[in-house]
Design goal:
This protein is an alpha/beta fold. The protein has 2 domains: 152 residues, Glucose-6-phosphate isomerase like protein, domain 1 (Rossmann fold); 116 residues, Glucose-6-phosphate isomerase like protein, domain 1 (Rossmann fold). The chain has 10 helices and 9 strands. The strands form 2 sheets. A 5-stranded parallel beta sheet has the order 2-1-3-4-5, sandwiched between helices. The longest helix is centred in the last third of the chain and has 18 residues. It is globular, with a radius of gyration of 18 Å.
């Protein structure tokens, strides 16, 4: 069994542990009404996007999300939430180092004492969810669960649903040439992350869109061997249009985080079918550290 497969399997337990830990970090994490920005790179950016949308959806305060390299200069926030598994990501380190008030920042990471933590006001270390695989799975989802639980969102249903997803057989993979993940609201970030897993681990053609945007161009790429994956609740009419355009729709739609676990498993299975190493994809490293 590969490292990524072992790490995918621990997610329900990791999520429950993170949800239990969340109240203890209340002083570090954003308070209701604060203006917040969440930042990250790659997978961590997708988790930041999901968190930001969920926080706004629950009426807890204006929340933006940006790639760490693209946060607008001069924009002021009450709190900065940075996500970096290794704590060594150069763009995140630079952003934290340049903040006018570093005490208003918190880093969510998997490694204690890493360079990013030196510039953050506080650090939340989820070392139990750190990973061997280059491809992120459990750290990212565990970080997101901690942030959602801190918002008062009950994530226990996601852990239960993920356990079922992990027990069920995957079925045949490789039937489809293209995969399109669709989300809405906070699941747009999850859809982007699901597509990234298929691209990273298996080199698959995978894209992600806000569901209502799918008809504004991307649907033109639909073909007989295209599979459309809804992540969470999306407008059923979009899925109907996808079928009319010639694609298939994934018929399993568990809770959003469990759906992401299913996509992770599919990515690994596709990698195996293509004789690829899902732990060490071409041209990828555990962290991007720039000179």
């Amino acid at each position: 069994m590969s490292a990524i497969e072992r790490e995918i399997l621990t997610q329900p337990a990791d999520w429950r542990r993170a949800a239990d830990l969340a109240p203890g970090y209340a002083d570090s994490l954003p308070r209701t009404g604060e203006r917040v920005v969440a930042v990250g790179c790659g997978t961590s950016l997708h988790m930041a996007q999901a968190y930001a949308a969920a926080r706004e959806r629950h009426g807890l305060g204006e929340t933006d999300a940006f790639p760490a390299s693209e946060m607008p200069a001069g924009r002021r926030y009450d709190r900065v939430v940075a996500i970096s598994r290794s704590g060594t990501t150069t763009e995140v380190e630079r952003l934290l180092a340049d903040l006018p008030d570093p005490n208003r920042s918190v880093l969510v990471t998997g490694v204690a004492g890493a360079p990013c933590a030196e510039h953050a006001g506080s650090a939340i270390v989820l070392d139990f969810a750190d990973e061997e695989s280059v491809v992120q799975t459990r750290f990212a989802t565990t970080a997101l669960v901690l942030l959602l639980a801190a918002l008062g969102i009950d994530t226990s249903v996601d852990a239960d649903a993920a356990e079922l997803v992990l027990e069920q057989p995957l079925g045949e993979v490789g039937v489809y040439d293209r995969h399109a993940f669709l989300g809405a609201g906070w699941t747009v970030g999850l859809a982007a992350e699901a597509a990234l897993k298929l691209r990273e681990a298996a080199g698959a053609w995978a894209e992600a869109y806000p569901a209502m945007e799918y008809r504004h161009g991307p649907i033109s790429t639909n073909a007989e061997r295209t599979l459309v994956w809804p992540i969470g609740d999306v407008d059923p009419s979009v899925l109907d249009d996808a079928v009319r355009a010639g694609s298939a729709v994934h018929d399993s739609n568990p809770s959003p985080l469990a759906a992401l676990v299913l996509a992770q498993r599919t990515a690994v299975a596709l990698a195996r079918a293509r004789n690829l190493d899902p732990d060490h994809p071409h041209s990828l490293t555990r962290s991007v550290v720039l000179p």
